[in-house]
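Action item from last week, closing it out:
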Amino acid sequence: MNQEKQKLDLEGDLWRFALAFYGRPGIAETCLRLQDEAGIDVIALIVVLYADTVLTHGLDEHDIAGLQASMRRWREETVLPLRRLRRALKQPPQEFPAEETEALRGLIKKTELRAEQIQLALAERWLSERPPHAGIELEKALTLLVGAASGDDEIAGMFARTIAEARATARG
């Protein structure tokens, strides 16, 4: 079936895993630090963790490049512009009406979350079309997601935390 016509499952297993994982103590903060300090796409991070801990077959270098490519346009044209706008409105110019601007920012935040939910559904569809095979070690797979320079030990510590929490999430 043509991917454009195939309905996405926005409430699929990957979405449920993402919600449970992101809701674990300290994970939201860790993920945001990885996003802001290391340039990591948190959605890609969650997908790599899910493939390894829930599907029990990790991704290799080729898979990670394919995953990122499959989500790139959606992320760049929807998720990132919404995020930039939401963040810009966090401290708007003084002449902006405060109450209305904050209400608009809330709507943008909900829309950004929906865009990320769609990105996860796109990734879940991509995973379902990928034949299972042996992947690389999870820690190495996560390092392939790093987009900006930061303290290697610090990033390694954040990766260790996300891996432990993803494994705990997968166990239920």
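Closing note: Residues 98-129 form the longest helix (32 residues).
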